[in-house]
Amino acid sequence: MKYDFQIKMIAVRHYLDGHDGFKITARKYQVPASSLRAWTAAYQFHGEQAFRKATRIYSEQFRAHVVDVTLREHLSMRSAAARFNIADYQTIKRWILAAKNSAFPALKERNNMAQKTQKPEIKPEDMTPAELLEEVRYLRAERAYNEKLDALMKSKTERKKKSTPSGH
């Protein structure tokens, strides 16, 4: 469903002024919370201009730039859409799929470079003791990183549970 400029501005300002969270604000203005979240992100990047209607024809160079930044910076499609003021995040998804199929000449070189830099998989039997030791160190560091990440996520979840008042 399409929403007009005014409802978007009122809902976003209500949320940003700290009156309510996404879900309550969305319910109050009868809009999907996901839309409110996207509008808010777009508004934070582009102000009211994010909601102005414009003819949206994107050059190949612009599309390639958006895809490159999205992949390089590991942006979500929604974040990239907000950052580049693209109305529908699915547009970026289509561009990325096209880029992976080398539909953008500007990205062909980048894709080829990424493929060249990947190391071929070497079997442990074919590795030298030094390479095996390096692999063990890498895997230990990776495991430690993942364990730390899990602990942080668990801690965040527990803090959220403690701060959220229960209905008892």
TrEMBL record:
GO molecular function, one term: sequence-specific DNA binding
Highest taxon of the lineage: Bacteria
InterPro entries found in the cross-reference section: Homeodomain-like_sf (IPR009057), IS150/IS1296_orfA-like (IPR052057), Trp_repressor/repl_initiator (IPR010921), WH-like_DNA-bd_sf (IPR036388)
PANTHER family xrefs: INSERTION ELEMENT IS150 PROTEIN INSJ
Protein name in the entry: Transposase
Organism name: Rahnella aquatilis (strain ATCC 33071 / DSM 4594 / JCM 1683 / NBRC 105701 / NCIMB 13365 / CIP 78.65)
